[in-house]
Amino acid sequence: MKGIFNIFIIASLFIATSGTVWSQNSEMTLTVYNDDLALIKDVRIMALENGVRSVKFSDVAAQIDPTSVHIKSLTAPEKVSVLEQNYEFDLVDVDKLMQKYIDQEIKAYTKEKVYAGTLLSAGQSDIMLKEGSGNIRVINRRTILDVEFPSLPEGLITRPTLVWLVQSQKSGDHRMELSYLTSGINWHAEYVAVSKQNDTRLEISGWVSIDNRSGASYEDAKLKLVAGDIHRVKPPTPRISAETAFLAKATAAPQFEEKSFFEYHMYTLQRRATVRNNQIKQISLIPSTQCTAKKVYIYDGGRDNKNVRVNLEFINSKKDGLGLPLPKGKIRVYKEDDDDHSLEFIGEDAIDHTPRDEKIRVFVGNAFDIVGERKQQDYKKLGKEAREETWQIQLRNHKDEAVNVTVVEHVYGDWEIRRKTHNIARQDANTIEFEVPVAKDAEAVLEYVILYRW
């Protein structure tokens, strides 16, 4: 719509009805899931009379799933039944008001004059009025400063509104619970780790970030976070959440209580919190704690022929300082500079949902001073149903200390190792791992021969 002008409505902006309105006192519970989904439960006091009345509620999320709405009386559930439910979202704007007022009286204010008459048409560039004298007046919308409408037309509302037709057999105050699902709100975990004592210890703290873009605020709510991959009929649209990084040095008491819930884990904040619309709220999940760590070098020459990956590995166990089921999220790793004791960023990775006592391996980057090279030394075809391959992996260590490198090789089908220079540390149907020690400022060579049959 061209031009800028104000709107005067000579009436309340709320629809005038005889329906019952919810009280402002609310008991709010907000349960947020990992995949752009939240469950809202809102308990309020409402006065009901015997008979059938309309009940309306407008403080709902703009991204509500209307098919998920449920309302019930906690005071007398057997005495209150819902006959009909409507979700009204025809929100008021200038163009809708203009169209609703075709053939009705309005006033248009310009800098020079006030025009009053019956609105005949409302286009993008001008409006047409029939004045009391019978003259037809065309007014350019760019010249209009204000428009006055007598009232808000029926059917237009200022906020999305739920409307129920409720039959009550018990008059008086009822505690009514409204629940619904909405998208537009998400949460994820973020972890900060500081590598210490020559990379043998990690100081870890965890935070949760709640990103609310649902179109509603949740005041003084009981907050629950559910970690797990729940199945939904229609997957949510992926959204990019804002990211932050910070370090918390002070030790705080745990704020969340964790428990198993169905096949997931639930984290309940032990105080009430307000989550406002268009807000990212961050709350401490894990107070700062230390655990045993191990630096692991991994060379996977079949996927990256040169680089040796550096990982920090730890166990999510109570004896190692953790032991809380960890929701998936990003972990950022820092290390202290020995000269000025400042913390410097050394890498980040994403971890999956991790139960207690499971190993976590964090990839932080590629080693600068360790280089790998993978070559096929020989290939022999042994008849129509077998072949033999010889592979050589060279590892060059330019550091001033010895290292151990885990060499990962990917295999397939029916295979057998015929010869090898180093022992196999781990293997499964598709992967072999060798542990190869490399002296300081030296080179180590792994060679193996593998037979494939089909």
Q: Explain this structure to me?
A:
The chain is mainly beta. The protein folds into 4 domains: 20-90 and 157-182, Sandwich (Immunoglobulin-like); 93-149, SH3 type barrels; 185-292, no CATH class; 294-313 and 359-453, Immunoglobulin-like (Sandwich). The protein is built from 1 helix and 31 strands. The chain has one helix spanning 94-100; strands at residues 6-9, 20-21, 26-33, 37-48, 51-57, 70-73, 80-88, 105-110, 114-122, 126-130, 136-140, 144-149, 161-168, 172-182, 185-196, 201-212, 218-227, 256-261, 264-275, 279-292, 294-299, 307-315, 329-336, 343-351, 359-381, 386-397, 403-410, 414-420, 424-427, 431-438, 442-453. The strands form 5 sheets. Strands 28-31-26-25-22-21-27-30-29 form a 9-stranded mixed beta sheet, with no helix packed on it. Strands 6-14-4-3-17-19-18 form a 7-stranded mixed beta sheet, with no helix packed on it. It is elongated, with a radius of gyration of 33 Å. The N and C termini lie far apart (71 Å). The relative contact order is 0.13. Mean pLDDT is 88; it is low at 9-18 and 236-251.
